[in-house]
Structures are given as C-alpha cells and as structure tokens.
Amino acid sequence: MRHWKYLRLLIVGITLQLACVLPLAAQTLPDLKPGQVVYDLSESLSADYLRLTESQLARYPFAVRVVYLPQTTGVNLGQYAAKLFRHWDLPQDSLLLVVALDRRKMGVHAGSELKTLLAEEPQPEQDLHQPTPIPGVTPDPTLPLDVSSEFDHLELIPQAVNQIADAMREGPDKRQPSGEPMANEDTMQIEQESNPRPRRQQTLDRSTWLLILGVFLLMGLAVGGFYGFRLWRRWHQTRELIDRYSLQGQVVYEQLEAVYADLEAVMPDFHGYLGETEKTLGLFLKSMHSLQSEYETIFDAFDAEIKALGGQRDDREAAIDFFRELELKLEEGKQLHEQAFQVLKNLKDVRQSNQQLFAVSDQKRQAFSQELSEMRKLNPLLKLKRIQLVYQQRLQELQRLEKQNERDPLGVEKALKDWRKQLSRLEQETRSLPHLWQQFNQDLKQRIQDLRKRVEKQGSPAQRQALEEIEKLHRTLLQATQEGDVSQLNRWNERFTQKLQALEAEV
Fold first, then answer.
1. I need a labelling partner for 485 at 20 to 30 A (CA). Which of 110, 219, 307, 503 fits?
2. Is 115:82 a contact under the CB 8 Å cutoff?
3. Which of 56-70, 77-91, 147-161, 183-197 shows the lowest per-residue confidence on average (mean pLDDT)?
4. Where are the alpha helices (DSSP H) in 309-384?
5. Secondary structure of 248-278 as H, E, C letters
6. If we measure between CA atoms, which residue out of 127, 132, 115 comes closest to residue 190?
7. Are 90 and 43 within one domain?
C-alpha cells in the first residue's frame, strides 16, 4: 500500500508539471459576436478608443479583427491567434490580431488566401518603445486612454496592419529578406504562427517541445527510480530474511524437535480410553498425529532448504517460505501441547466428579432401602418383590459404571445423569404404592361390588361381560400393587378406570 501511495504522489506531480507547460490549452476562448470587429476582454479601454480603432481598420481591403487580452503570461500570442481564428471559423481572406495589454506584444494570424501573398518565412517579433505617426491618423490626447505611458503601443496597431497590407501588395519578390523586421526595431513585437500547417492542426514551438520532452524525461526518471527503489527494497528484505533464517533457522529447528518430543511424551496418556471418551478424543488425536507428520517432513527437508537459501532466486524464495512456515508450525505445536494438558486435566476433573456422584448415589441407595423396609412394616400385605428386584438392577448398574469410570469418564458422566433420573422416578412411584393399595383394596373393591349387584339385577349380557373384564383388571392391578410391579400398574390402570366409569354410567 505504501508503494501505491508513492505512485499517486508521482502522478500528481507530473500532472502539475504538464499544467505549467501547456497553459495555452487552459486559455478560455471568447465567443464570436457577428458584426463586432474589436474585442476588449480586459474591459479597461475606452469606448471612444475602440470606435476609433474600428473605423481605422474598416478602410483596409480585407477584414481585420482585434482582440485585447489582459493577462498573457506563458501564452504564445501567435498560437493563440491561430487557435482563435479556427475557433471562430473566420473567412480565409481575413486577418486576426491578438494584443497583449500586459506586455508590448501582438499575435497575428492570416487566412490561407492571405498567406499565399505573404512570405513563407514567419514574421519575427518587432519591438517599438516610441510610437511613430500613422498616415491619416492623428492621436487624440483627450481620449480616456493614456497612450503616452502604459498603453502607448496600442496606437501602433493600424501601423502594423499597414505593414502587412503593404507586404501583400508588393508581393513575395519585393519583400524584405527573411529575418528582417517588417517595421523598425522600435515597434511592437509581432508573434505569428510559425511553420504553417493544415487548418485543424495545432503546432508547438521548439521551446515547448523541449519542455514536454523534459517533462517526459522526468516522468521516466521518476517511474524508473520508483520501481528501482522497489526492486532494491525487495532485494534488501530478501537479504535480511536470508541472514535471519541462516542464524535463527537452527534455533527454530531445535525448538521444533523439543515440541515434537513433548507431544510424543504426552501421547501415551491419551491411549486406553473406551466408549464416549475415546470417540471424543479421536479428533484431537488426529490433529496431533497430523502435526507430528508435518514435523517429520520438516526434519527431512531442513538441510536441503538451508542450502537453497543461497541458491537461485526461485529456490531461495521457496526456502524463505519454508522457514516462515517453521515459525508457524512451532507456534501451532506449542498450542497443541498446551491443549493436550488441558484435555487430560478435564478428563481427570470429570473422573473425580463422577466419584463424588457415586458417593451421593450410594447414600441415596441406603436411604431408599431404609424407606422400603419401613413401608413393608406399615403395610404387611405389600410384599414389593418386583420393585426390590428393579432396585437391585439399578444398584448393579451403578457398580458397573463405577468400574467403567477409569477408562470412559465422559461416557460414565452421561450415564450417571440418566441413572439418577430413573432412580428418582422409581422412588416417586414406590412412594405412591401404599395409597394405590388402599384404593384398590378398599374403595375400588367396594365400587365393583355395588356395581355387580346392579348388573345382576337389571344388567344386560354385554354389561355382565364388561363387569367380568373390570373384575379381572382389578385383580391384576391389586396383585401388581402388592408386588410393586410399576410397569403393570402403568399399563392397565388407565384402561381399568375408563371401563369402570363407562359401566357405572350405563347401569
């Protein structure tokens, strides 16, 4: 990103240089007003002077237009006159004068028909510090314009047009030799478009070409320096990397060997697990084996990569990437080694937590056993053999989990949660047996006896058959309650209640 920042600054600088070299392109061209001969873009000349100039220019045998510019620094007046001539699309038998008010210069451009009557050589610049009289024109000292000081050269415009007209009438053979001025040495300087070319083609003088060439030369030097600096910087960074890895590569290599040995040492602690714990550790062990394999590849290629640092460019860059990867793999190995210790610590914590749950569960088992004894004392008819058998099965399952805790602590943790839920449900169902026994042996038994009397007296055969089924279900539920068979109670109790209520509603 820093390189692009430098390149943008370079482009901005070149753009500013081009803006200074080509001010003509930025010059604003005025619009043509039909019938207007004199254009004062400075708005500093008096209306009387402009009317007098327009009347003087009207007497020539060809059309003449004059434009006064206030600021012309850096502008070639001859080129500006040619450009404005084409912009206005003036007739080819007309003449355009561009007068600089901030210096004693004037630009001239004639149409193609006038150019055929003029000499092929461009008109040189002429300079006049003292005005000369113009035939037929008498200066008016009362005009608002002070022609005796700052703008005294404006009085020479008709004289310059006279010189051009005289040259046109005399012909090329009678013209003054090339390089001589059309007026005295003390007249206004005249800039003309040199080396006339086709109408729509813009030309640049020698100095402008030299400036443009210089700008492009600076551009080339700047771009070359920029990319040269980048190449040098890249070479310097490469050299620093080579020196760094040549010195530190062996250190990193030795650290990698130490981390590899640490991983090997901790690996046996992950073996011997079963069930859910083995499944959970599988992905972590896979990561450890993969990193160890990468370490072994690094160890095999290390010597060759050390030699490649001083070899060819492509080999050297590949070696540098190799040594960069070394540091990343070293950091990855350290993190994985720390994770291994954290995993083993978590397994130990789970194992200890399970041991505490075993102790709590054993206490609950003893309390429940005492509760069953008291329940049989209070209800001698409740034998509770079935629930005692289920309870013994839960106890055996708890003992099996306690043995499994050493090799599968994660699986035991999950199984203990289920075991505790089942034991809680079994305790609730057992505590409800005395109430169910009293209900089936007294209340429901009496309701069935009353129902039998009504059915035998006025019941139909279908109702008698339904009564027999109800009595059979009652005996089954009574026996299940006495034995503590909770599964039978849950299976037949709802059916018994529905049939009993339905028959009572019918009879």
1. 503
2. no
3. 183-197
4. 313-378
5. HHHHHHHHHHHHHHHHHHHHHHHCCCCHHHH
6. 127
7. yes
| Per-residue model confidence (pLDDT) at position 198 | 43
In a 13 Å sphere around the CA of 493, the CA atoms on its Cβ side amount to 15
**Which two structure tokens, joined as six digits, stand for 130?**
């003292």
Q: How far apart are CA 412 and CA 49, in angstroms?
A: 115
| Strands 189-192 and 95-100, bridge-based pairing | unpaired
The mean-pLDDT minimum among 204-218, 275-289, 294-308 falls in 204-218
In a domain, 11, yes or no: no
Residue 160: closest CA among 210, 110, 111: 110
The pairing of beta strand 95-100 with beta strand 105-110: antiparallel
Give a yes or no: residue 7 inside a domain: no
Judge if 46 and 180 occupy the same domain: yes
User: Residue 251 burial (CB < 10 Å; 0-12/13-18/19+)?
Assistant: exposed
Query: Is the predicted pLDDT of residue 126 greater than 70, yes or no?
Result: no
Residues 156, 99: Cα–Cα separation, whole Å: 11
Determine the longest span between alpha carbons in the chain, in angstroms.
163
Tokens standing for residue 449: 């006896």
DSSP 439: I
Of 187, 204, 221, which one is at a domain's C-terminal end? 204
DSSP letter (8 states) at residue 137: B
CB atoms closer than 10 angstroms to residue 438: 13
Q: Is the Cβ–Cβ distance between 226 and 10 less than 8 Å?
A: yes
**Best CA proximity match to 482, nearest among 401, 409, 379, 395:** 379
Asked if residues 101 and 151 have their Cβ atoms less than 8 Å apart, the reply is yes
Q: For a pLDDT cut of 90, what percent of the chain falls above it?
A: 5
Kindly state the average pLDDT of the residues 99-116: 83
Among 343, 374, 407, residue at a domain's last position: 343
Same domain, 424 and 456: no
The DSSP bridge partners found for residue 65 are 96
Question: Cβ distance 332 to 263 under 8 Å?
Answer: no
Can you list the positions of beta strands (E) in 187-315? 189-192
Instruction: Give the separation between CA 312 and CA 395, rounded to whole angstroms.
Output: 75
Residue 388, both tokens: 């005692």
Report yes or no: 128 and 79 within 8 Å, Cβ to Cβ: no
> What torsion, rounded to 10 degrees, do the Cα atoms 34, 162, 44, 83 define?
50
Residue with tokens 């912009």: 87
Residue 447 inside a domain? The answer is yes
The answer for residues whose C-beta is within 8 angstroms of residue 482's C-beta and 6 or more apart is 381, 382, 383, 437
Same domain, 39 and 118: yes
For position 66, what pLDDT does the model report? 92
Same-domain check for residues 39 and 147: yes
Q: Are residues 450 and 308 in the same domain?
A: no
What is the residue range of 420's domain?
358-433
Q: How many helices (H) and strands (E) does the chain have?
A: 15, 5
* Residue 176 resides in a domain: yes
Number of domains in the chain: 4
